[in-house]
Amino acid sequence: MPFFPEYEIKKQVMDLHMGDKVHYCYQCGRCDDVCPVTKLVGADRYSPRSLVMLGLLGLTHVLLVDTPKNQFALWGCQTCDLCDEICPNDIVLTDIFNILKNASIKQQLAPEAYQQQAKMVMETGYSVPLQDAIARRRDKMELPELPKADLTEIQKILKITNFDKKIGYEAPKEEN
Amino acid sequence: MTTNEEFLVFPGCMIGNRLPYLEKSARLVFEKLGLKPKESSFSCCPDPIGIQGSDHTTWLSLGARNLSLAEAENKNIVSLCNGCTQTLTVVNHELKHSEQKRNKINKILKEVGKEFKGTIDVSHFLTYLLHEVGVDAIKKKVVKPLTGLKVACHTGCHYMRPTEIMGVEENHESPQNLRKVVTATGATVVDWDEEHLCCGYAIERADPDVSYARLKGKLDSAIKGGADIIVAICPTCFSHMDNNQRNLTKKYETEYKTPVLYLTEILALAMGFSSDEIGLKNHRSKGDLKERFGGE
Fold first, then answer.
1. Is there a single domain that holds both residue A18 and residue A89?
2. Where among A66, A91, A106 does a domain terminate?
3. How do the residues of chain A divide into helix, strand and coil, expressed in percent and rounded to 5?
4. Residues B52-103 pLDDT 10s
5. Which of B39, B210, B213 is closest, CB to CB, to A146?
6. Residue of chain B whose alpha carbon sits nearest to that of A166
7. Global confidence as pTM
8. What is the pLDDT of residue A3?
9. Can you name the CATH fold of B3-125?
10. What is the CATH number of domain B134-293?
11. CB B202 to CB A143 under 8 A?
12. Across the interface, which of A75, A84, A147 has its CB nearest the CB of B41?
């Protein structure tokens, strides 16, 4: 297997607000010890300790390959933050995982449901938009209408952050 | 300066757009406690798992936009959802502590006429109850004490972790805040090994089997602890635990039917509201809810 570090990802990991703490990961494995997912599936399938190492070295090519095994190796993280709490070097592991997840999304390697959620936010401003059935239930329960978010404003922000390109979004075709 | 007398409630899209019966109970509890929260045109917080995982800059920008709406009204945000609480608290923290990030995000917000200033605070309604309302004031409103009801408290990860930023003064391995409020209803809080662990929702999208195995661990632990019901303070944890017990029953060929109540549901019941008033019939894992609390 080629051994080329992904320097951009390595740089992002090094630039995290943890400063130089991140250099001091000595792979003690306390993160793996407390991770409820590792406990269930074994460190072969999901290991925070391995993810830190891969992120630090920029060796993300072994991770960002489209196989179900690799997908779970990253998205098996529940962001429960238990590893962040236990790390003896105060490394915020979850922040590293988010950098890796962002890279995975960009390469369209994340579980489909994440892209769907991102599309939903682009189109409605919400991860869970209001559906007719729920609107009727709200009426029945005499709940007032909730204020709506300004979608034009939100879409303008998403345009600037290039969210559409990052998540591989294709806008529904408009008729002219 | 902001005051906590008037706050902006951040219900989050799960409560407003999927679980309106939880909102109903919350509104009744607000009224009973004399709280008059205002609303604002917030968007998705956005989700600390999915959207932060998709693009950190977008997550910061939309979070900062929501915060700027509250700043414009000079009101603190009180959220009913752990996910929203964590996103808004962490975005607030990251932008307050990094001039570089703040400038970057404000350049984006400027395009829509907004600015993040860092002048308000964010908390979960549980924290608000403890610090601004107080356990004694809650006790005074309890007219139907839930004596004998054994409760497993599920605080949920994003309320308290990362502890350094969330600042809720909890030992994240042995959270007490929810226990204090539940105890005020007259119910008995039970000890269980997995109280501080994730409900499993966050990996449902990556592998449902592992997610349900995680949920099974939680439920087995709560049952072993002698719980009649589980109380959650997060609509997503609530939904995951309430919806998926039937999947566990199928998958593991053991019946799972422990009712799950949301924080303001158990409070509303203890404050004398009926099961029908708060739409308890909408729950999926009903167990003995009807025998205990009546209703349709």
1. yes
2. A106
3. 60, 0, 40
4. 999 999 999 999 999 999 999 999 999 999 999 999 999 999 999 999 999 9
5. B39
6. B55
7. 0.96
8. 61
9. Glutathione S-transferase Yfyf (Class Pi); Chain A, domain 2 (1.20.1050)
10. 3.40.50.11810
11. no
12. A147
